[in-house]
Write a structure and sequence with these properties.
- The complex is a heterodimer of chains A (about 300) and B (about 550).
- Chain A is globular and about 85 Å long.
- Chain A is about 75% helix and about 0% strand.
- Chain A has helices at about 1-30, 35, 45-55, 60-75, 85-120, 125-140, 145-160, 170-200, 205-210, 215-245, 250-255, 260-270, 275-300.
- Chain A starts with a helix and ends in an 8-residue tail after the last helix.
- Chain A has a domain at about 90-270: MetI-like fold (Orthogonal Bundle), CATH 1.10.3720.
- In chain B, strands 12, 13, 14, 15, 16, 17 and 18 form a 7-stranded mixed β-sheet that branches. In chain B, strands 1, 8, 9, 10 and 11 form a 5-stranded mixed β-sheet that branches. Chain B has a 4-stranded antiparallel β-sheet with strand order 4-5-7-6, covered by helices on one side.
- Chain B is of the alpha+beta class and about 550 residues long.
- In chain B, a hairpin with a 4-residue loop joins strand 4 and strand 5 (about 105-110).
- In chain B, helix 8 (about 315-325) runs antiparallel to helix 10, helix 13 runs antiparallel to helix 14 (about 475-490) and helix 13 (about 455-465) packs across helix 15.
- The chains are: A mainly alpha (about 300), B alpha+beta (about 550).
Chain lengths: ~300, ~550
C-alpha cells in the first residue's frame, strides 16, 4: 500500500513538470502583447514599454522565461501579478474560498442526490421515481449559467432570501446559493447513479438472504443495500470534487465569488503568465491527489480490490 | 481615467441571451413578490456608501495608475493642486494660486497647513518629489509621459530630478515647460500629478499596497485593500478642500462582471453603479425609474483609416472616400437601435461635456447621414481610381464591439454598394499589438476617454504628427500649426477657438471617422440621494448622502 502511494506520487513529478511547461508555452504563444493592453486605447512610449518588458522578463526568449519561473518556484517565489501582489498570496487567498464552495456543493449534491436516488431505486417505476427522472433530466440539460442567473434573480433579487453576490471574505451563508447552483450540475448524475446501483443491489443474493433471515427493512436498506450501492457513487463524487474545484469559473463569475475560477479567468485575459501557470499547477496537483484518493477509496469500500506492487 | 471604457475593459464574457429571456419570464411571474424595504431614517453623516469598482491593475501609486479601477480610488484618496467639479471646471484643491505670464513658466503656490493622513505636512516638495519620481525612467511608471512636457525630461536615461521643477519655499514651486502649453493648469487635476508623502519613497512597493494620501478619504485600516474583493475608505477629517465628504466613507466592491454588479444594485447590496451591463440596457430604466442615469461622458468613439491603406491616402481620392464613408453611416439609427440611446451621434472630435465643444463646426455636415451625396462622392473617387476589395473595420471581439461594427459595416454596404465587414481580433492585447505595430491592413476602431476636461487632450495625442496615440500615422502641417497656436494662447477662450479651427482641418481630412460620444449609464439604490456623476463618468462620492 505504502509502496503504491509512493509510486503514484513519484509519477506526479513528470506530470507536473510537463503541465507547467505546456501551460507556460501556451500563455507565451498567446498572440498580442499583454503590456500594450495595460495602456488601453493609448499607446505607450517605446522606451517605457521596453523597460516594462525587462521588468517582467518578457524580453527574454521563451525557454529562459520558463526556467526563470521554474527557478523561482524552488525558492518559493511564484512571481508577481501586474498589480504587484505575489502570486503565492493570490493562491493562498483564493484556494480556500473555492475549496469551501466545492465542499459545500459536494455535501449538497451527495446528500440530496443519494437520498433521492435511494428512494427512486426502492420505488422503481412509481410516481416519485418518474418525477425524479423528469427533474434530473431538466437539470442535466440546463447549462449552468442559466441556472445561476435564474437562481440569482429569484432568490437574490425577487425574494431577497440570499445575497445576489458573495460579500467580502466569502462567508458560508453567502456561498449557500452558489453552492446549490454548482451542485445542480452533478446532482442529477448522482441521483441516476444511486438509483441504478440500488436497483442492481436489491436483486443480489445477499439482500434476498437478509430478507429470508427475517431482518427488517429498516435494517436492510441502510446497512445492506445502501452501503453496497454507494461504491460507484462515492468514487464518482470524489472525482467530481476535483471538477468542482477547477470548474467553477462560470458560477464564480456570476456570483462574484473571489475564488480560483474568477481570478484565473482574469489572469488569462490580462496575459499574466506566472499567475496562470501557478494556478494551473496547483489545480493539476489537486487533481492528481484527488485521483489517488479515489483509487484508495475503492480499496476501502470494496475489500475485493487489493493493491499489489 | 484613460481609455479603458472603450475597449480595454476586462470582463467575464457574457453568457446567453436565453438566460436573460428566462429571467425576464420569471420576472413576470414573480414581480408580485418583490419586497421593498422601507427606509425612514434620515441621512447620516457616518453612513458608508458602497460603489462598484474593479481590482486595480497596478499598485495604488498615482504615477503608476492609468485605468479607471485604480483611478477612482486614487481620486478619493488624494487631493491634487486642483480638482474638477461636476461640469469639469477646475477648482483649486491644494493649490492657492497657479499663475503664468507666457503659458510656459508657471508659479504654483499651495495652501499651508495641509497634511497627509500620517501627519506629514503637504509641501511643495511633496509635489516636486512625486513628479520627479514619476518622470524618472528608472521607475518605469505607466504615467511617465505626463511629465514629458516639463523641461529636462528624458524618456530613456534615468535621472532623479527634472530641471524644470524648482522648489522656491515650502509653499511655492515653479514649473518650466518645454514649450508653451495653455492647458497645463487644467491638467493638474489628473492623478499623475498628485503629491506623495516622504515615507512613500522609502518603500514604494509597500506604499502601493497601502497608500497614504491627503484627499477627502483615507484607507479604513492597514489592510483595507482586500485584493479582488473590495477596498474600504473612510472620510478624512483633516481634509479642508472643496470635496469635504458628507458621508462616512466609500467601500468600492470589485466586480469581475457588470452583470454581477447590476444584480447587486437590484438586490440592495450596492448603492451606486456607474456602468450598466449591455444586457440590461433595454430594461434598466424600467428597473430603476428616476434613479437611472444616462448622460453624456467625455468619451469619443471613431474608427481610424490609416493613410497607408490603398485608396485612402492623403490626397483627393482619399478625402472623397473618407467623406463618402462618413456620410454613409446612419449614426442616429445605430445609436438608437443598438445602443438604446446610450450614445450620442458625434458632431466633432471631442465630447459635449468639454468646455469648447461645438456642434456647428464648418464642415461638420460630413458627419450627417446623406446616402445620395455619399454615393456621389464615392463615384467621384472611383473616377480617379476604381475601387476593388472589401472595406474592413478591425476590432477586439473580447468586448461588445461586434454589434456596432457590423451595423456600421452594413450601413456602408447598403449605401455605397461595396463589400464591408468587421475584422475581429480575439483579444484586446492582440488587437492593440496589430494597431501599434502598424501591421494592421484595415481600418480599425478607436476610442478616447479624456484624462482631463480639455479639447487639447482629444486632439494632440491622436492627430498631431508623431504623437503617442496617433495610430493612423496622420500628419498635417496645417493642423499641427493651429494646434500649437492654441497651446500657446494664455486666454482659454482664444485657445478653444483655435482648437475648433484645428478640428475643421480634421473634418476635411477625416483621419478618423467620428461615430458617437458614449454616455455614462448608471444607477443608484433608494438608500442614497444627491448622486451626481462627474464629467469623467465617475460619481461624486463625497456629495452622496445615505440614510
Amino acid at each position: 500500500m505504502a509502496g503504491y502511494i509512493l509510486r503514484r506520487l513519484l509519477q506526479a513529478i513528470p506530470v507536473l513538470l510537463g503541465t507547467t511547461f505546456l501551460i507556460y508555452f501556451m500563455v507565451f504563444a498567446m498572440p498580442g502583447d499583454p503590456l500594450l493592453a495595460l495602456f488601453g486605447d493609448k499607446t505607450p512610449s517605446p522606451a517605457l514599454l521596453e523597460s516594462l518588458r525587462q521588468q517582467y522578463h518578457l524580453d527574454q526568449p521563451f525557454i529562459i522565461q520558463y526556467f526563470l519561473y521554474l527557478g523561482g518556484i524552488f525558492h518559493g517565489d511564484f512571481g508577481t501579478s501586474f498589480s504587484g501582489e505575489p502570486v503565492a498570496d493570490i493562491l493562498a487567498r483564493t484556494f480556500p474560498v473555492t475549496i469551501r464552495l466545492a465542499i459545500m456543493a459536494l455535501i449538497i449534491e451527495f446528500v440530496g442526490g443519494v437520498l433521492i436516488g435511494l428512494v427512486s431505486g426502492l420505488r422503481k417505476g412509481k410516481l416519485f421515481d418518474a418525477s425524479a427522472l423528469v427533474v434530473s433530466l431538466i437539470f442535466i440539460s440546463l447549462p449552468i449559467f442559466v441556472i445561476a442567473f435564474v437562481a440569482q434573480f429569484i432568490f437574490g433579487i425577487q425574494l431577497g432570501w440570499a445575497r445576489t453576490t458573495v460579500s467580502s471574505g466569502a462567508p458560508i451563508q453567502d456561498l449557500i446559493l452558489p453552492a446549490f447552483v454548482l451542485a445542480s450540475i452533478t446532482f442529477a448524475q448522482i441521483v441516476r447513479l444511486t438509483r441504478a446501483s440500488v436497483i442492481e443491489t436489491q436483486s443480489l443474493d445477499f439482500v434476498r438472504t437478509a430478507y429470508g433471515k427475517g431482518l427488517s427493512r429498516r435494517r436492510i436498506i441502510p446497512v445492506h443495500i445502501l452501503r453496497n450501492s454507494l461504491i460507484p457513487v462515492v468514487t464518482y463524487a470524489a472525482t467530481d470534487f476535483g471538477v468542482l474545484l477547477v470548474g467553477a469559473t462560470v458560477t464564480e463569475g456570476i456570483f462574484n465569488v473571489p475564488g480560483v475560477g474568477r481570478t484565473l479567468y482574469q489572469a488569462i485575459v490580462r496575459g499574466e503568465g506566472p499567475t496562470v501557470v501557478s494556478f494551473v499547477t496547483v489545480m493539476v496537483l489537486i487533481y492528481l491527489v484527488v485521483n489517488l484518493v479515489v483509487d484508495l477509496l475503492y480499496g476501502l469500500l470494496d475489500p475485493r480490490i487489493r493493491y499489489v506492487k | 481615467m484613460p481609455a479603458f471604457c472603450t475597449g480595454g475593459k476586462l470582463k467575464i464574457r457574457r453568457y446567453g441571451i436565453g438566460a436573460i429571456a428566462l429571467v425576464a419570464a420569471s420576472a413576470l411571474a414573480l414581480s408580485g413578490c418583490a419586497s421593498g424595504s422601507s427606509t425612514s431614517t434620515s441621512a447620516s453623516s457616518s453612513a458608508v456608501i458602497t460603489a462598484n469598482g474593479s481590482e486595480p491593475q497596478n499598485p495604488l501609486i498615482p504615477t503608476n495608475t492609468n485605468e479607471t479601477g485604480g483611478g477612482k480610488i486614487l481620486d478619493s484618496l488624494f487631493a491634487g493642486l486642483v480638482y474638477y467639479d461636476a461640469t469639469g471646471k477646475p477648482v483649486n484643491d491644494v493649490a492657492d494660486s497657479i499663475t503664468t505670464d507666457d503659458a510656459q513658466t508657471y508659479t504654483i503656490k499651495i495652501k499651508s497647513g495641509e497634511k497627509f493622513t500620517n501627519g506629514d505636512p503637504v509641501t511643495s516638495s511633496s509635489f516636486v518629489d512625486a513628479w520627479n519620481y514619476g518622470a524618472n525612467a528608472a521607475n518605469t511608471q505607466l504615467n511617465q509621459s505626463w511629465f514629458s512636457i516639463i523641461q529636462g525630461f528624458d524618456e530613456t536615461n534615468p535621472q532623479t530630478s527634472l530641471s524644470g521643477l524648482k522648489v522656491v519655499d515650502d509653499t511655492t514651486f515653479t514649473v518650466t515647460l518645454t514649450e508653451p502649453l495653455s492647458d497645463f493648469p487644467l491638467r493638474l487635476g489628473y492623478s499623475a500629478y498628485y503629491p506623495l508623502p516622504k515615507e512613500a519613497f522609502d518603500d514604494m512597493a509597500a506604499y502601493g499596497q497601502n497608500p497614504i494620501g491627503n484627499g477627502p478619504y483615507k484607507l479604513a485600516s492597514a489592510d483595507a485593500w482586500k485584493h479582488n474583493e473590495q477596498i474600504s475608505l473612510v472620510a478624512n477629517s483633516d481634509y479642508t478642500g472643496g470635496r469635504k465628504p458628507v458621508n462616512g466613507g466609500v467601500t468600492f466592491k470589485f466586480y469581475a462582471s457588470e452583470d454581477a454588479a447590476y444584480a447587486d444594485l437590484l438586490g440592495g447590496n450596492l448603492d451606486i453603479l456607474d456602468s450598466i451591463p449591455a444586457a440590461s440596457l433595454a430594461n434598466y430604466k424600467a428597473d430603476l425609474g428616476d434613479r437611472a442615469v444616462n448622460q453624456p461622458a467625455a468619451i469619443f468613439q471613431s474608427f481610424t483609416i490609416p493613410a497607408s491603406l490603398a485608396h485612402f491616402g492623403n490626397n483627393q481620392e482619399g478625402q472623397l472616400r473618407r467623406a463618402a464613408l462618413s456620410m454613409a453611416i446612419n449614426r442616429p439609427e445605430i445609436t438608437k437601435v443598438i445602443f438604446q440611446d446610450t450614445r450620442t451621434p458625434a458632431s466633432d472630435f471631442t465630447s459635449p461635456v468639454i468646455d469648447g465643444w461645438s456642434d456647428s463646426l464648418t464642415g461638420a455636415d460630413v458627419l450627417t447621414y446623406n446616402p445620395d451625396k455619399a454615393k456621389a462622392l464615392w463615384a467621384q473617387a472611383d473616377a480617379i481610381s476604381p475601387w476593388s476589395g472589401t472595406f474592413q473595420i478591425g476590432y477586439n471581439s473580447d468586448s461588445s464591439h461586434q454589434v456596432w461594427v457590423d451595423a456600421v459595416s452594413n450601413s456602408i454596404k447598403n449605401t455605397l454598394g461595396i463589400d464591408a465587414s468587421g475584422a475581429p481580433y480575439p483579444t484586446f492585447a492582440e488587437f492593440r499589438t496589430a494597431v501599434t505595430s502598424g501591421a494592421i491592413t484595415t481600418a480599425f476602431r478607436t476610442g478616447w476617454q479624456a484624462d482631463y476636461p480639455g479639447l487639447y487632450n482629444f486632439l494632440q495625442p491622436l492627430y498631431a504628427t508623431n504623437a503617442s496615440s496617433n495610430d493612423g500615422k496622420y500628419s498635417s502641417a496645417e493642423f499641427d500649426k493651429i494646434l500649437a497656436q492654441g497651446a500657446s494662447e494664455t486666454d482659454a477662450a482664444a485657445a478653444n477657438s483655435d482648437f475648433q479651427k484645428a478640428q475643421e482641418v480634421l473634418l476635411k481630412d477625416l483621419p478618423a471617422i467620428p461615430l458617437w460620444y458614449a454616455n455614462v449609464t448608471g444607477g443608484y439604490a433608494d438608500t442614497v440621494s444627491n448622486v451626481q456623476f462627474g464629467w469623467n463618468s465617475v460619481p461624486l462620492y463625497y456629495e452622496v448622502t445615505k440614510s
